[in-house]
Specification:
This protein folds into four domains: 93 residues, Sandwich (Immunoglobulin-like), CATH 2.60.40; 237 residues, Rossmann fold, CATH 3.40.50; 165 residues, Galactose-binding domain-like (Jelly Rolls, Sandwich), CATH 2.60.120; 90 residues, no CATH class. It is built from 13 helices and 35 strands. It is an alpha+beta fold and 647 residues long. The two termini are 47 Å apart. It is globular, with a radius of gyration of 27 Å. 46% of the residues are buried. The N terminus is likely disordered. The longest helix is centred in the middle third of the chain and has 20 residues. Strand 24, helix 12 and strand 25 form a beta-alpha-beta unit.
């Protein structure tokens, strides 16, 4: 009886979803929906800033009021009163609210950004707030999230999205109003998992995927087990016996049939999606004749989660957790010629593998350094049952259901988005799926809010270039094409990526470039007088004169410029009718760029920044915004046939 009474009392209490809370920011100049649950038919009164609205909960216990639009201000107190209780939220501000979403480069915290040490101690911005949405997945739409609002202080700032923090800081400088960030992001995720089932049913290709979504958790586990078993069979046939595994540390083991993946990195993206368990990594290391291999130390920046590390079959040590490792190698263990490092890694959930900075994975002493980042052989020794549970990409719609749907219809000004790395293999399809997701969110909110996104930075994903094709270049092209949607903007980051790190640490320029686009798209401004450009040069037209291609651009601002002390323009390739690309010489002439190559008599196509790692690009306008990578041709891409399916 007591349990029943407790349940009835709890059910009768008026309550709100966790998108509302003390320290929140409400959107200025727009009607503000406030909603929640109460006893069926219960009268609910909402009071804020001299406004009072009253409604009754429906038969399903849901209620909603809409507060009148208000100007920036506060702090206010929001009171929600029911029959038995009153919910009170303090320190409520009105200002600008932006959703911050995408994958790891949006999730990336300020604590890990390039200038964290100087930025965090002075991050006293009481009018910048963040709601950090806890990661969650669901096959059906949810109505609540876990998370709470926090005020930006040196104590809380390290957990802010770094891109969002710098974006908010610049916006507040421009607008002088409170800024609220709703940080709902998850590293390594596809755009399809952020898209609703209704939207997927509007697309012929994605409708097939939506129709295959499992009915419940039992079917999810069954599918997960079958998927993992099929993966192991394809990768290596079967799991080893305990006796077999004991031989995997040996230098004499024949590992020629083992698969390879790049380390450091997350094995879920290297060939073992959703796998929790035990994986061995092996690498041959050659010690040059005559080298001094005394007092060598094996360094690893981090491991997810636990390791046992061997050299030539001898155990150096074992460590639990993500901390850095430094294992002393006994003198005499390393020999001139071939040696073998074997690492047994146990992952209990989430990311797995050798993690951290590539330069910190090495054998080193005062006399000798041998880098170990690169290809490692690997083999699975054990699979944990948690592998069968779905990850965020296992099925489409899961993050929309759990991390977007509960936020609707909270009033927002717009969204900033940093994602695409995980869709690069299906870049052509992204031309449809990315705009579909944007329109999906807008339709659910009920208005075409500004949607600003970051184009992929330079990163050597697979040595892609103009001649051999580049998945990353094709994804950037799909992002550029998405600018055809109204109220969109894009920040170019080709010039601030890192060749060997998919997570560039410079988030300051990313945030500032998004803020410049926000001033143009959302606030009808594009900078101070004399600096009215918020984006870089965009290819407009090509004409050919003899062996030269002449390119014109939009958004040239005060004029084109090359960031090079000698004035060289880099990043251009040119091809003739044979579709063979050659590095082009380029020259700025007024507001045009003239390109040519000695090997191309009649230019047919020009490409700029068309590579996975396109960090050599250096064309800007004088307002310091980089040019958008482009191609003038429509020749067949390498991702045209790739389609989304269950991972």
């Amino acid at each position: 009886m007591t349990s029943l009474l407790t349940f009835q009392t709890a059910f009768a209490d008026v309550r709100l979803p966790n998108v509302f809370g003390s320290h929140m920011v409400l959107q200025r100049r727009k009607p503000v929906p406030v909603w929640g649950w109460a006893e069926a038919g219960e009268k609910v009164t909402v009071t804020l800033n001299n406004q009072t609205k009253t409604t009754k909960a429906g038969k399903d216990g849901k209620w909603r009021v809409t507060l009148d639009a208000m100007e920036a201000g506060g702090p206010y107190q929001l009171l929600v009163k029911g029959k038995r209780n009153t919910v009170t939220f303090d320190d409520v501000l009105a200002g600008e609210v932006w959703i911050c979403s995408g994958q790891s480069n949006m999730e990336w915290p300020l604590a890990a950004a390039a200038n964290a040490k100087t930025e965090i101690p002075v991050a006293n911005y009481p009018n910048i707030r963040q709601l950090l949405v806890k990661k969650d997945i669901s096959l059906t739409p949810k109505d609540n999230i876990e998370g709470s609002w926090s005020v930006c202080t040196p104590a809380s700032a390290p957990q802010f999205t770094a891109v969002g923090y710098f974006f908010a800081k610049q916006l507040q400088k421009e607008l002088n109003v409170p800024i609220g960030l709703i940080n709902t992001s998850w590293g390594g995720t596809h755009s399809e998992t952020w898209t609703s089932r209704e939207a997927m049913n509007q697309n012929d290709e994605l409708r097939l995927v939506a129709n295959k979504l499992p009915a419940g958790s039992e079917e999810v586990i069954q599918r997960g087990a079958a998927r993992t078993q099929a993966l192991i069979k394809a990768q290596q046939g079967s799991l080893p016996t305990a006796a077999d595994e004991q031989t995997w540390a040996s230098a004499t083991l024949n590992d020629s049939e083992w698969k390879t993946m790049n380390m450091p990195g997350d094995w879920e993206w290297g060939g073992l999606p959703t796998l929790d368990g035990v994986v061995w990594f092996r690498q041959d290391v050659v010690i040059p004749e005559g080298s001094n291999s005394q007092k060598m130390v094996l360094y690893m920046d981090s491991v997810a989660d636990n390791d046992s590390t061997f050299v030539n079959g001898q155990l150096l040590g074992s460590t639990k957790g993500g901390k850095a490792r430094a294992y002393a190698v006994p003198d005499g263990l390393l020999k001139p010629g071939r040696n073998v490092i074997a690492i047994r890694v146990t992952d209990t959930g989430g990311s797995g593998g050798l993690m951290g900075r590539p330069e910190q994975l090495k054998l080193a002493s005062d006399n000798l350094t041998i880098p170990l980042a690169g290809k490692w052989k690997y083999r699975v020794a054990n699979v944990f049952a948690s592998s069968y549970k779905p990850g965020p990409n296992t099925f489409a719609t899961q993050l929309f259901n759990a991390m977007i749907n509960p936020l609707i219809p909270y009033a927002v000004e717009g969204a900033i988005w940093y994602q695409g790395e995980s869709n690069a293999g299906r870049a052509y399809q992204y031309r449809k799926t990315f705009p579909l997701m944007i329109q999906d969110w807008r339709q659910h909110w009920g208005y075409d809010f500004p949607f600003l996104f970051v184009q992929l930075a330079s990163y050597n994903a697979a040595n892609g270039d103009s001649q051999h094709g580049s998945t990353w270049a094709e994804l950037r092209e799909a992002q550029t094409m998405t600018l055809q949607l109204p109220n969109t903007g894009m920040a170019i980051t080709s010039d601030i990526g890192e060749r060997t790190d998919i997570h560039p640490k410079n988030k300051l320029d990313v945030g500032n470039r998004l803020a410049a686009e926000a001033m143009r798209v959302a606030y009808g401004k594009s900078g101070e007088p004399g600096n009215e450009v918020s984006r870089g040069p965009q290819f407009n037209k090509m004409t050919v004169e003899n062996n030269r291609a002449i390119l014109t651009f939009l958004n040239v601002g005060s004029g084109l410029v090359a960031k090079d002390k000698y004035g060289y323009v880099r990043g251009f390739d040119v091809a003739g009718a044979d579709q063979k690309f050659y590095y082009a010489k380029a020259e700025i002439q007024g507001n045009t760029v003239v390109v040519h190559a000695d090997s191309v008599a009649v230019p047919v196509a020009v490409r700029y920044g068309w590579a996975d790692d396109n960090g050599d690009v250096n064309l800007y306008n004088q307002e310091n915004f980089p040019a958008i990578p482009f191609r003038t041709d429509t020749w067949k891409g390498i991702t045209e046939a790739a389609r989304f399916g269950e991972q």
